[in-house]
User: What shape does this take?
Amino acid sequence: MQGQTLQPANRDPEEALMPLNHEPTVPYEQVARCLKYIQSWREHLAHAWVGYASGVPDTRAIGNAVDELISVALLEEKARRTSPGSVSPLRGVIASSTARSVQDLWAAVGQSASSPILAAVFQTGDADKQVPVPDNVLNSPWVERIGEALNLMSPTEVPSAFFGDFHQLCLARPLEASFFHFGTLETQHRRHDWGAHYTPTPIVEYLVRRTLGPQIDGGVPANGFPPRILDPSCGCGAFLIAATQMLLRRGTATNLSARERLEVIAGAIVGTDIDERAVWWTRRLLLLAVWASCVEDGLDVRAVPEEILPTLDRNIVCLDFLRSKSGRRLRELLAESATVEEIVEFPDAQVYPDAKVQIALLCLSKGKKEFRTRVETCGHVIRRSDRESSP
Assistant: This one.
């Protein structure tokens, strides 16, 4: 699936091939090599940390703290590769500050940011940040090794989708389990039970173009209000980030100020997920997407008032949307009141890089109407139905 582009029928081919952002498309083989390198350093740091600890170590807290250390390094690399000088190099922050806990390190990097928007990316966080980092861990070459790992994927960019790949690695191979032969039952099955197999980038971009593209004109609808976009199982925000990038990078949207771009995501983007860490990643990456769009369009993001920065804690929420009563009613409403416009089938079960599952993309529109349903296999029309479509 990697490297393929799904192209809607009857659309401008050049527009369909145009990426939603300025990031390169990275083959998954390169992503896998990067993740393998990062995994080796996750395990190295965790074991070094446990070996330093006195008494009985809290392996869960240590494992989470290691992943937070790597997370701040990844975000710092993403920011500096997008705009050199946007934040201070992490090794320099460690040497010049008194930061000795994970929380302090996040805060110190945020304080070095050249924009309040970027600073907010490093202020969002979750549990285990008050854990003090041992000197043998903090002063080891982990920062440099994370940079080397990212170079295996791309020497100049860190695609936003990579953070979802990293989070999936953390779910699939929690560090707590590495201290035992097989880990606990929870750590073995956490990713499987949560269904955390995030949609590949080509499918994300196809669906965003297919659904959101017709709704906007020059970045926002003709009435001037962006559509509200909900992802009820958002994971690390791949669909919401792609939707944000489309809203901010279409036509007259490039004329929006930084304040207006923040208002767009605060008013238009909504998501839920059962994974609290994934929710935090989505909030971070949405703010990062706004900041990156401002940088790419040459806007001055240094003078954005901190008081207008959205926290997104009411936009992106940790809850179970589709195992709830309201979720069941939504499914019933779709069956009763929606029209199937398009079904895209995948004959190859290996659509996801590391999971075999047969999937189909179902595109619906509001209202029951006579419609010719288009059925495609990987973007090629194979048959049409002249009868009234139904789910």
Notes: Residues 87 and 109 are 7 Å apart (CA to CA). The two ends are 26 Å apart (CA to CA).
